Amino acid sequence: MAKKEKIQKETKQKDKNKHYLLASHTKRWIKATLMFLTAIIILLSFLDKAGAAGKLFVKASTFLVGNALFLLPLFLILGGFIFLKTKKKGKNLSTFLAIIVLLVGVAGILGARDLTLMQGGWIGFLLGKMLAGSFGLLVANMVFSVIILIGLFIFLQFIFLEIMQEKEEAKKAGLEMKSSDAPNFRIKGVEPEKTEPQKSAPKMSLFKKENPPASTKKLVPLTTMSAINKGKYSLPPIELLSKNETAPTSGNIKENSLIIKKTLENFGIPVEMAEVNVGPTVTQYAFKPAEGVKLSKITTLSNNLALALAAHPIRIEAPIPGKSLVGIEVPNKVRATVVLRNLIADHNYQNADSPLYIALGKDVSGAPMYTALEDQPHLLVAGATGTGKTIFLNSLIMSLLYKSTPEMLRLIMVDPKRVEFQNYNDIPHLLCPVINDAAKTINALQWLAREMERRFEVFSEIPTRNIKSYNTNKSVIAAGSQLPYIVLIVDELADLMAAKGKELEAGIVRLAQMARATGIHLVLATQRPSVEVITGLIKANISSRISFQVASQIDSRTVLDTSGAEKLIGLGDMLFLSSKSSKITRVQGPYVSENEVKRVTDWVTDMGNKVEEPQSVLIESLKNSLEQVQQEKSEGGETFFGDDDPLFNDVKRIVLETKKASASFLQRRLRIGYSRAARLIDMLEDKGIVGAADGAKPREVYGDNAGAKLANIEGGGLDESEEVPKEEGWQKV
């Protein structure tokens, strides 16, 4: 038995290894063609146009089956069609058997009708005589009719079996889609939220620690129209914002999941569907690939999946942060509108202690997203025109207005377009009117740099490390000298960089490096994410970035250092890269209409005018000093530092003491760049401390040691024994 089984296995293996010269469909076409050719030759033989061989064939066939021969071409054509239409094996013998059975049945009926005429040939005569003579003509006709039906059934069985098989396969496929092969997963949906914070489901911010549940922490009530205190500044009421939020339509989730699974399996990637997250803009289908599958194989199939799903564009997140799953984000059939009111009404926003807590929007699972600006601590926003940057800036400003009073927060807004921030011109939070030109922007950055230095000096007297510790100090609270946060918001950075690129970059980099602890934060936006606008120094010092839809993968890499932003679908759809995490999060930003902005700004302006509480001396001094700086005229060739270069007094002391004045000397002594050293020499010349350049001769130095000591005392310069600090990145500009 074992030998027999072994021989059978070897025979099967040999059959598998056979290489046939002709494909199966080619063989079927050849057989059908031969059948049709035979039928045509027989028809020509009836017309005496097939030569001597045709005549001989007709005589011999008529001798055998009589007039039944005239049906033979019809049976041959039917057999040819069966060869063409069916793929079932083993039909050669059955087809020829059916033709013979049909000829015999027809010949028998013709022969039994009249035995003397021999209409059924000798076969019909013999069969008819035997059956009709024994059982009568009726029984003989019944028997021959059954024989004809058997022949037809043999013929048509192939066609019927083919049709039935196709129906069964279609039915099985439908059942598989509905039950057996349909992936088993959890579906998380997004529903329009209510505005009451007590009824909203607790959500978790990815960039902030989770707040305790509502049962363990007392919720801060929302400000409403009826809760406004007279004579004291109150935060804007929630009724000023719209609450028309719609629900998304994701399409057939189970069908899409099955398509994703089948498509990946076609490329040799077995997966197990895990869960589906229905977000406001996209639906994320999460699955777990089999062990040993490279994620790079999945990410390269994005175009194939988009073709199979008839959806564009799709984004693959491999892996999903915090999960051992891969996510495919497919655009929804109908997008949901995320409104700011629901995000502000959420208890996470209401209970946040940060005065710079901003609502980003909702992620792909529909959970609200928030972040504190002081934790970022600066933000770079980029995206193509019409993708939602300005609306996002409006929602960011509204989040700040709903969280902070003018005593807690001050804003400086830069709007080169002159139309985006005009609604905010009269709000009490502004330190100065909205800035529209590059020269005043440079002045504002210079003032912020001086204010940063002043705050560091104030912190050193307490001493404290940052603004939060300073404002919570008991002596500071008793004196009423808390410092407000200052946020600089620039709507279009590209226009400013084109006009004052070097000076603007130097100021931004200096503030981005050092201003975090002093409560000064930057929010920069641009619609042209190129390396000329978003320079390497700016990117290196602003690690938190938001990218809306961009034109190309190169622009996406310029903003986020990775691709993906080119696959967004616009209208507030964005990617958020936080300084707290290296993973990018997809967020749908909230929509804020112009009417909402107008209502809130009008209310805030009226509240600021009605409040009789006197502003602090510190706030007044900040506003006066900034206004004074803004009134100064900026010369075309002025640098960012101007006459206030922090090294000027040290340079003056060193030159007076050493009697040497050259750019290369200052480079070696202070470890600074040539451009800055040359500017310092020019400043000394303007002040009359050194003489003019005279070819290759050294400059003449005026003054003596007494003047040097006086300069040292007045400027607070460094002693010879002190080590000069290394140059910071902003000093190289």
Automatic annotation (TrEMBL):
Record localization: Cell membrane
Family to which the UniProt record says this protein belongs: Belongs to the FtsK/SpoIIIE/SftA family.
Gene3D superfamilies, per the entry: 3.30.980.40, P-loop containing nucleotide triphosphate hydrolases, Winged helix-like DNA-binding domain superfamily/Winged helix DNA-binding domain
GO cellular component, one term: plasma membrane
Membrane recorded as keyword: yes
GO biological-process terms attached to the record: cell division; chromosome segregation
Membrane-spanning parts: 62-84, 96-115, 135-161
Limits of the FtsK domain: 366-557
GO MF terms held by the record: ATP binding; DNA binding
Record-given protein name: FtsK domain-containing protein
Binding residues for ATP: 383-390
Biased composition (Basic and acidic residues): 723-733
Topology class, membrane: Multi-pass membrane protein
Region (Disordered): 189-213, 714-733
Database matches in Pfam families: FtsK_4TM, FtsK_alpha, FtsK_gamma, FtsK_SpoIIIE
Keyword vocabulary terms for this entry: ATP-binding, Cell cycle, Cell division, Cell membrane, Chromosome partition, DNA-binding, Membrane, Nucleotide-binding, Transmembrane, Transmembrane helix
Highest rank taxon of the organism: Bacteria
